[in-house]
Amino acid sequence: MDIINFKNFSWKYSGYRGWTLHNINISIKKGEFIGIIGKIGSGRTTFCSSMLGLVPHFYPGIMEGEIIIDGVNVKETSISELSSHVGLAFQSPANQLTGAGTTIEEELAFGLQNLGVPYEEMNKRIKDMLKLIGLEKFGKRSPFELSGGQQQKVAIASVLIMNPNVLVLDEPTSQLDPLGTEQVFDMVKKLSKKGITIIMSTNNINYLSKFADRIVLFDNAIIKVDTPNKILTDIELLKKHSLTHSDITEVSIRLKKMGLYKGELLVNLEDLKKVVQGLIK
Amino acid sequence: MASIGLSSYVEKDSFFHTINPLTKLVILLCVIIMSFTLSGFVYILLLLLIIIPIAIKSKVLSLTFKPIFKLSFMFILLFIIQGLFHPYATKKLMDLPFGFTLWEDGLLYAAYIASRLFVMMVFGYWFVLTTHPGDLVSSLTKIGLPHALGYIILTTLQIIPRISGQMQTIIDAQRSRGLETEGNLFQRIKSFMPLLGPLFMGSVQQSVEKSMALEARAFSSKGKKTSYRKTNITNMDKIIMTITIIFSITWGVLSWIL
Questions:
Q1: Residue A6 pairs with which residues in a beta bridge?
Q2: Is residue B10 a part of any domain in this protein?
């Protein structure tokens, strides 16, 4: 069953000449993990914001086509209403903290308060969410006292707590250190296993190759949609859109050149491990 | 213990920390009204006899009187200026050298103003010390404060320390490019200008992103809202409010009769 459906969707910000996104057609199944790659300015952020309705409701511009998410038409639904269908996390963790919550628990409660969720239910969901993000002991701390990675986890949790079926992450790790990045990816992997549909925009190819079901390459339009193995090893295609392939692919290219390996180019560390182990034997 | 930005709230386990913020607000309002309507400064100062046991019970006695010590210079100045230069002074207390005169009604007037400020500051600071801003906003929202206004009050407390942090980052960035931030007053004012641009633009940009983040959490959703902070008006609150109001009226009437 398709949970997300873009039909001929195009978007132009008012004041800009060209289409930021042109003729987007994609269907995403429930429970899929979609990775979105593309250079800066390729419209990935616009694509992500369109799912919560920031485009067209928040930004002025011209929209064509149609977006149906979780059974609702984005154009006809308010952002607040969409927020219980779609959760959107942004790049900067600190700017997503509302500032109204003096503790992490209150930060998480913010969305639920707005939806009018009763106290007991709120309390239960907060406890569960803190457990999920591994911050049970930090519930009474101020969110501003956390590390970047932890803040980002709180930010993701704060939209997730509203029980959306789709979680959209726009470059959630670009401002984090390697440890923070790993924490966030681990959490996203957990969520994906629970059956939440995940759309993640990131150029962290190493992680995407491990987790994503499909990769979408953006350049103001959808250039290609395919499995991680197909897209992330297409070096020419990546180069054409100002992206680079991963170190693992590079190793497999060199092995091939040396005549040690004959199969397809690799993108996954586990696959590479098998090949290298075979060579050692 | 979580620090709450600008707020001076002190987390303590006491009776007055648990009662409804509105009850404390009623006490504070009564004190303010009394300090403007009572007939003499002695009556006002006697109100301090009430705050001392309350502050002890709230476990914040020394903190409650802290702003007074910090502002003691202002009180001294008040007495000097009013005592020497009160415009409608008629009763002379004593002659001072260099042709100055110390006026009795000037000193009385100063005592009246000082006692007013003194009592209001002590009660006000006690209120701030024992009331969590989240509780205050939550209880005010329940009696009709607009939701968005409540958010603004709360977020301001948290955001101003953050903006001053960003200010420091910008200062460091501009300094590393050779901006002179030290020197005489004129030099400092001049060096302040290049900091405002980035700070202002940065804040605007952040607030755009923040407003999106708020929308992503159903901020403008219509319908009933709930609160994670429990602020119910209990019978105890009602009793305290009633006692406060009855006492204030009695004390006010007494001060004018006696």
A1: A26, A67
A2: no
